[in-house]
Amino acid sequence: MDKIAIIGLGLIGGSIGLALKQQKRADLQIFGFDADVNTGNKAVKRHAVDKSVWKLPEAVDGAKLIVIATPVLSIREALQNLSELVQPGTVVTDTGGTKRMVMEWAEEYLPKGVSFIGGNPLAGKDQTGIDKAGGDLFKNARYCLIPGKSATENAIQLVTDMVEDMGAKPYFIDAFEHDSFAAAMTHLPLLVSEALVAAAAKSPTWREMARLAASGFESTSALCATDPLNNLDQLMTNRDMVVHWTNEAIRELVQFRDRVNGATNEGGAEVLGTALAKNWEAREVWHARYITGETDDGVGEKKAPSFGSPGEIMADFMLGTKLRERYQKAMNPDEKKEAEYRQRRFRRS
What we know:
Mean pLDDT: 88
Number of helices: 15
Low-confidence stretches: 295-299
Distance between the termini: 91 Å
CATH class of the largest domain: Alpha Beta
Number of domains: 3
Largest sheet: 8 strands, mixed
């Protein structure tokens, strides 16, 4: 019987167990280990694991595959503890949101003959914990895989099979590239979410202002609801990349501030509108290619829909003659008509 051990039974670890259990393999036994005994008991009740134990050696003894599903900084301690417990031929993987440090730790602590494949499932929820775990969490999600230097082909295949069994799509990538991309696509959105909530919540009018918060605020601030400990770990272990992309975002934000400030100047509306259209187009292309999958080139790669250039969009849609006149009238009202209006209003009063 094949044994898999899952260390950490929160949202990700619990969901891995539930997804694998859906395969209904009679030859598979899943052991779980979590620092919180109550979490382990819940994992058993939810059938995410066959058995939860409170001693790590018992959890990993005889395991063919060990999955570390803890916050990133805790992965280091887990690898240290495993260094004296795992036998040659064992395969170890993780689910951490950053990869460079994790790969270094695995290289440092795991003994020879043990294969390590770094992993990061690009899936999650606003709330965490075993209660939120679900067997369909990874369905159609990309699952990043970074084989260690000494990982065998059989080990890589084993982890790849596990990922596919969970309904996810294996995506092989370099650790450095992963962390750079993750900083832009995951960690920067987190900081934007944090900055939005901080700016709004620190306002003296926050209580009154909060009543107007609707879907825009809710969706943008959602990342603030994710596990602060896990977020802290990812930011700390990807500091240089996060700083780089944050600086890029600050530059863009400053430019948008200046465009908004100058929108009433000659040509200012066109400048702001072109920037908005360009980003609208970029987002639509991304969404159609990687989220909805509306188009396909026949070989599995989604094709970007054609929207025309941002300049064409602005000319044909946003800044046609009538709309341009509207901006001009709204921002630069006819002084003569304004004077006549004020006179009529004065006579009525």
